[in-house]
Design a protein that fits this description.
The complex is a heterodimer of chains A (229) and B (557). Chain A is α+β, with helices and mostly antiparallel strands and 229 residues long. Chain A has five helices and six strands; from the N terminus they run βββαββααβαα. Chain B has 557 residues and is mostly helical. Chain B is 70% helix and 2% strand. Chain B is built from 24 helices and two strands. Classes of the chains: A alpha+beta (229), B mainly alpha (557). At the A-B interface, helix 4 of A face helix 6 and helix 9 of B. Chain B: This is Solute carrier family 6 member 20. Chain B: It comes from Ovis aries.
Chain lengths: 229, 557
């Protein structure tokens, strides 16, 4: 029997009668081995890789092919597995109903790509733990919220800082105004005192409230006149 | 009646303001780099010697000058000698340059801080390419942290000539950074308190330089802070405290930085090994778990002998993983802060928390230093009778912040990071050495060391220790002169200056020459501050001559 070489990029060049496994359709499963028993570990689920699992795999591949137009008659028996190794990697091919040719690599690849998610889920694996050689997986894009998160946080901090700045500026302006009003208020009360002096026969009126401190009027003599500032 | 100068509420506030100014980003990203380059622990020897011989005396000198003259840098030096107010002007000019570019770092820190509230951290994964079959090419070639820094944050252009437009995202962050700084300085400076191969001469030179710039000498900030002190304040004690705390922070920061290096190196080494193991396991259909880090070398030899042709196919893809080469990556500056640290953080558990804490710390350091920088500009401006009679303090601060923010937009352009490096490397280095040299010589020989000594004694009540006199008079000026000569000759010998540009196609930095207009800007930066000293002296000389030569001025109509 001739050696059977299928190019990955090109179509299958099947000329022989007996179809055998080709090296292109190759998958392997990463697992944690325990002695000779092959276990598949994924997401906490453990199960041994045996012929039943192989049957399931064939069923999934046949299912994927049946979704392709013109290939609805693919049966499980058309999927061939071979070269199963210890780390659970094997080759497989899909033949046409007449069992004479294998299907083109491109067809099988695209069919598996379409149903990759379901194949993964059947074995509780994901794209990282179940690898199909030369079938690149479509990577899931990270979720992009409509408004980037950083703008929201930026907006919050910006508003807080802006409000604080405005408050400080306003309180500064108020302080200025109070300072300018203060000395003029002093002058008003002193003018009033002048009037009082003329009214109240010469006893000087000192703006005690303004100056602070206490002066005992009993000790004020004629000579001591409190001069207003 | 003369308006009394505002004072610090307590001496502790003054100390905290000085510490927060001196302890800045340089402690985190420059000192550990120097330690690593110049022999690790042994770098501490020249560092501590330079601290004692150069750092502390000059720090004490600046604080004493500020406290004695009770004015900002321009007024203080005008009091020492009218011909020397140029020194103050030069300090203000250098501080202005520093303010302009330093706050951009805070803008970047804000950017990273806001992006830390996502899962996963945006710099831990590469974005997908157009048809979602793989990652973006630039990210694959470089790493996800480098991609996030160079493409998402800076959106850097391939060279300094291609300026590009202002990027609105970092521009927004810059506006926020300036708003925060304005908020802090609004009420005046007095409110800011409220919150390395021993034989290698380069090691000694770098130790001297690091001490010099780490303490922030020559910018006028220390003079500004000290001018708000009570005259009787014991600034000698404070000078020693501030310099010791600054250096301890540097040493502590390098301990942290080295452990981060170790973590990152170990992590990268292990993932490199895992990649090689996976590659070999897949290529030769080995049993999973058969290849481990321990037997990797033997298995590789066995495979090379058993399957020579297949091994030679796979061989080019096998990377040589080495812990030593990972540890040897010594980075400083923005590369350390925003690439190496983020790479280490993304691999930690609860990385969002560490990321937020880390960038918050960077922001605190940066804004603390910014307050000192702005004080250096604002204090001379508010001291000047001309300006403060027209505008209130808040308006002056606002105008300064606005002007700096507008100029800082230059650094948010696509080529902004290259201009940032220019400012960072050249705006302050040579000019500061000259400014501090002139300051020391002025106080010791123009004003008179004995006169200054008696002033200090009258102010604080303590006599001046002979140690300070010896340092101010002789050792420190000589040190600064030698540093100055070294740097000047280094610039001249190296010839044309070069910079590192990011090549998006290769995913790594390449060295390029500065174009002529960038060289012109560098020259202008250095000259504009240095020239102030002789120009103002000349100006004062001329005005005095004119006044003397014209005794009867024409009466004003």
């Amino acid at each position: 029997m001739e050696a059977f070489l299928i190019e990955v990029d090109g179509a299958a060049i099947g000329r022989r009668r007996n179809t055998t496994c080709g090296p292109w359709g190759r998958m392997w499963i990463r697992h944690v081995p325990v002695e000779e028993v092959l276990y598949l570990v994924s997401g906490g689920q453990e199960y041994a890789w045996d012929t039943n699992e192989e049957y399931l795999f064939k069923a999934m591949v046949a299912f994927s092919m049946r979704k392709v137009p013109n290939r609805e008659t693919t049966e499980i028996s058309h999927v061939l597995l071979c070269n199963v190794t210890q780390r659970v990697s094997f080759w497989f091919v899909v033949t046409d109903p007449s069992r004479n040719h294998t299907l083109p690599a491109v067809e099988v690849q695209s069919a598996i790509r379409m149903n990759r998610n379901r194949i993964n889920n059947a074995f509780f694996l994901n794209d990282q733990t179940l690898e199909f050689l030369r079938i690149p997986s479509t990577l899931a894009p990270p979720t992009d919220p409509s408004v980037p998160i950083w703008i929201i946080i930026f907006g919050v901090i910006f508003c807080i800082v802006l409000v604080a700045t405005m408050l400080l500026i306003l309180s500064g302006i108020q302080q200025h105004r109070r300072k300018h009003k203060g000395p003029s208020e002093m002058e008003d009360t002193e003018d009033k005192c002048e009037n009082v002096i003329t009214i109240e026969n010469g006893i000087p009126c000192d703006p005690l409230d303004m100056k602070g401190g206490h002066i005992n009027d009993a000790f004020v003599t004629e000579d001591e006149r409190l001069t207003p500032l | 009646m003369e308006k009394t100068r505002p004072l610090w509420a307590t001496p502790l506030q003054f100390v905290f303001a000085c510490i927060s100014y001196a302890v800045g980003l340089g402690n985190v990203w420059r000192f550990p780099y120097l330690c690593q380059m110049y022999g690790g622990g042994s770098f501490l020897v020249p560092y501590i010697i330079m601290l004692v011989v150069e750092g502390m005396p000059l720090l004490y000198l600046e604080l004493a000058v500020g406290q004695r003259m009770r004015q900002g840098s321009i007024g203080a030096w005008r009091t020492v000698s009218p011909y020397l107010s140029g020194v103050g002007v030069a300090s203000v000019v250098v501080s202005f340059f520093l303010c302009t570019y330093y706050n951009v770092i805070n803008a970047w820190a804000f950017w990273y801080l806001f992006h830390s509230f996502q899962d996963p951290l945006p710099w831990s994964v590469c974005p997908l390419n157009g048809n979602r079959t793989g990652y973006v090419e630039e990210c694959e070639k470089a790493s996800s942290t480098q991609y996030f820094w160079y493409r998402k944050t800076l959106n850097i252009s391939p060279s300094i000539q291609e300026s590009g437009a202002v990027q609105w995202e970092p521009a927004l962050c810059l506006v926020l950074a300036w708003l925060v700084v304005y908020l802090c300085i609004l009420r005046g400076t007095e409110s800011t308190g409220k919150m390395e191969q021993l034989a290698n001469p380069k090691a000694w030179i770098n130790a001297a330089t690091q001490i010099f710039f780490s303490l922030g000498l020559g910018f006028g900030s220390l003079i500004a802070f000290a001018s708000y002190n009570e005259p009787s304040n014991n600034c000698q004690k404070h000078a020693i405290i501030v310099s010791i705390i600054n250096s301890s922070t540097s040493i502590f920061a390098s301990i942290v930085t080295f452990s981060i290096y170790g973590f990152k190196a170990t992590f990268n080494y292990e993932s490199c090994l895992n990649k090689v193991i996976l590659l070999l396991t897949n290529s030769f259909d080995l049993e999973d778990g058969f290849l481990t880090a321990n037997n990797l070398e033997q298995v590789k030899d066995y495979l090379a002998s058993a399957y020579p042709s297949k091994y030679s196919e796979v061989f080019p893809q096998i990377k040589n993983c080495s812990l030593e080469s990972e540890l040897e990556t010594a980075v400083q500056g923005t590369g350390l802060a925003f690439i190496v640290y983020t790479e280490a953080i993304k691999n930690m558990k609860v990385s969002q928390l560490w990321s937020v804490l880390y960038f918050f710390m960077l922001l605190l350091l940066g804004i603390g230093s910014m307050l000192g920088n702005t004080a250096a500009i604002l204090t001379p401006l508010t001291d000047s009778k001309v300006i403060s009679s027209y505008l209130p303090k808040e308006a002056i601060s606002g105008l300064v912040c606005l002007a700096n923010c507008a100029i800082g937009m230059l650094f948010t352009m696509k080529a902004g990071s290259y201009w940032f490096d220019i400012f960072n490397d050249y705006a302050a280095t040579l000019s500061l050495l000259l400014i501090v040299l002139v300051e020391t010589v002025a106080v010791c020989y123009l004003y008179g060391l004995s006169r200054f000594e008696s002033d200090l004694k009258a102010m604080t009540g303590h006599a001046l220790n002979w140690y300070w006199k010896a340092m101010w008079g002789g050792v420190s000026p000589l040190l600064i002169i030698s540093l100055f000569i070294f740097y000047l000759s280094d610039y001249i010998i190296t010839g044309t200056l070069q910079y590192q540009a990011w090549d998006a196609a290769q995913g790594q930095l390449v060295t390029k020459d500065y174009p002529p207009h960038a060289l012109a800007v560098i020259g202008l930066l250095v000259a504009s501050s240095i020239m102030c000293i002789p120009l103002v002296a000349l100006g004062t000389l001329i005005t005095r001559r004119l006044r003397r030569g014209d005794p009867d001025p024409a009466p004003v109509a």
